[in-house]
Amino acid sequence: MTTTLRPAEPEQRRPDGVRARRFHVCVNGRVVGETTVSTDPRFGPEVGGIVALRIDQAEQRRGRGTVAALAAEEVLRGWGCRRVEVSVRAEDSAALRLMDALGYVVRNRSMSKTLPDVPPALPPDSAVRPMTEAEYPVWAAQARDEYALSHIRRGVPEAQARAKAEADFSALLPEGPATPGAVLRVLEAGGATAEEREAVGNLWLGRRDESTGYVYNVRVAEAHRGRGHGRTLMLAAERECLAAGFERLGLNVFAGNEPAERLYAALGYEVTQVHAAKPLV
What we know:
Layout: E1 3-7, E2 12-13, E3 19-27, E4 30-40, E5 44-55, H1 64-78, E6 83-89, H2 93-101, E7 105-114, E8 126-130, H3 135-152, H4 158-172, E9 183-189, E10 198-209, E11 212-220, H5 229-243, E12 248-254, H6 258-266, E13 270-279
Parallel strand pairs: 5-6, 11-12
Antiparallel strand pairs: 1-3, 2-3, 3-4, 4-5, 6-13, 7-12, 7-13, 8-9, 9-10, 10-11
Helix pairs in contact: 3-4
């Protein structure tokens, strides 16, 4: 039996240049599923994604998904894509196995937790305050650079990574620290009074949806790492989200950041999605 892709609709072209198309997955002409491919608006036309892949239950475990995914990659190659990305639900073990078998490398993971009813206490020698206007430009430049580098280390060309960092920060913080809904905080630690404490880290929170807050950036200054300040910042994030009426808190962790993964797991975060990529050249 031959598994092929058959167009289910005309190719879609968006004003921003994104190309997308939905295909039927067919076995000898019989429809057994569907898949959708698209170029990635975040990185430009050289990056594509398999944004959906479904095989009918009766046709599963027969290699249909493998052939359909490989055929989808060929479509993206034909569009000039040099990298393909996928996102898989953490509970979808079959999709995770397929992703691994096809050579995709995990890039990052989405995590989330249900917030407690009672705000967690912070260490007595710590305090959280708003980021000042003077502190913002220094923090923003450093955060953008680290964000770009996190992609560069995972194979994203530098120009694409830095363009994405600039676009994301402009979209999420168009008015800097005055952006509605943005929460920018500085953690101070080391004493019982403001005069005794010093800035040791910072936190950027936003809204993901009506019930979920999101940690966009959390950072402990290098000289102060290994002292539990990362945990304190995450507890501060929970307090901020509870005060805003959120029920859940989400975040992203890049693959290989084992200290962060251990911290989040210890605080009760669970993986919700796995994001992976592979080269098409």
